[in-house]
Amino acid sequence: MTRKESWYDPPYNLVDMVENSAKKFPNRNSIGIQKSDGTYHFLTYRQIGERVDNLRGGLAQLGVEKGDAVGVIVKNSIEWAVAAFASYGRGARFVPMYEKEREQVWRYIISDSGLKVLFVVDNSIYEKVKHLVDEIESLEKIIVINGDGPETMESLEKLGQSNPVASIKPHWSDIAAIVYTSGTTGDPKGVLLSHGNFTSNIQAAANAFPTLDENTISLSILPWAHSFGQTGELYLGIYLGGATGLIGSVDTIVEDLQKVKPTILIAVPRIFNRVYDGIHRMMKEKGGISEFLFNLAKSEAKKKRETGNASILYYILDRIVFSKIRAKFGGRLKLAITGSAVMNPEIGTFFSDIGIATYDCYGLTETSPAMTINSPLKHRIGSVGRAIDKVTVVIDKSMTGENSEDGEIVCHGPNVMQGYHNKPEQTAKVLIDDPKLGVGFRTGDRGKLDKDGFLFITGRFKEEYKLENGKYVHPASIEEDIKLNPYIANAMIFGEGKPFNVCLLVPDFDSLKSFIESIGCAGKAPQQLVQETVFVDFVESQVVEQLKPLYGGYEIPRKFLIIDNDFSVDNGLLTQTMKLRRLKVMEKYGEQLVTLFEEGK
Fold it and tell me: Which domains does the chain have, with CATH numbers?
């Protein structure tokens, strides 16, 4: 596969990147954690660098050499970062895993990656995996991070401090990490990402946002076991010399925002959707002068956006109304980069109007992950941006026809993965070579480019299906739009080979609280509410009316199955990256969905 030397600029690897920042910003805050008293404690770049040096020496004492695999089972933490950079400094491949994962998935990844050393968060996980040392040939050591296991990360760092070794500087083509995708079907695939994949992506992101510098502060929300969190939060922050605070848990995000006061967030649109819905619901419930001022402020912000001129009234209302909303994000947040789904244009515009610019990007684990991005330099609402530096995006119409507007999105550039670990046949299906554009990745996603090169996502080939009448349906697009409805928590469309679509719906019972009270059902449990005809009819009608302006009649579901239990990672219906496991959902609810086609015939 053609990979051009000109694609890559220094730093060529993640080792140089972290060492450069440690030298340039030794006393600046790097990564911070919440202490037991609720305050945040940040390690400086010098302190992070010292721990990386010590652990690198410890790994050398364990016999970790170039090409070996080192893994972690731990959520975002200082130890996660230290283990990663220490592994890179030995020329090893880093393999991150989720704490909340099925044991059989851990076993598969450890075996498939040929893991030599494994770090686990505590003794509880150590007890679950310790037997694997005897069962998996490659696995030699399990190190406990927080606990009193037979070998701990602290003792290994002390060993390395007494036996220091210089860092190995990998080539840009050397594998840095194996990031396992949360497979919606079958075993997860290990995506081989090189140092050059990561560093080129980091530099392209920094170039797209020239105001980002060492004063950048982010709050880490996304899991680093996924490439979006790794690249966008951890590596970009370190490249800039900025600070990254770690959330205590998903339940403490609101409080963490107040303590860290980030200037940037790397997030998924759903976070902003929920805030948007909450603010508008609260204003409607308050009514009176509060709702009036809120709507007036929105109106003045719209005038400012359309004319480029701000009235005195706008500045007054900004201080009275919008500043209070910004305060919920810590008061310093200026921009957010969102991925995994396109931000609803109305919601994106709202946040930009109140002083928090949101920019959609697009990519996959296989593209390290960014492929296209909106930015202050090039922005088009509704799109996922233009190709990042040194990346070329083309639309292959071989499956849709030359006269079609859209086709398969193909990415060429320095961000394209090296392949799937131990899966040559699957690698061959998605990697292509072009003499001029270089190595390319077939995304399986469907999209179109406008005349200015902005990419618009239109569907996913792997998920599309035909109705009985031969018309194609792209369920993911419909589902994403349904989930923008404030009354809906989750949805799945089904109808392959059927005469029409049906929909599995999970209501947002908190958002429906006022309606529930208005129909005299206050106090009823969700499992009771989904049996109430008036409740069911209201929820269904909200979805149908929402979809009418957006989709053809054949695409809009005719019947619904409303359930009270949301999709989640714990119940196996979502992947770790919050993607729908369609086969698992069908295993659980398929019979009930099929019954909908029989009813009323």
Answer: 11-196 (3.40.50.12780), 269-331+334-460 (3.40.50.12780), 465-598 (3.30.300.30)
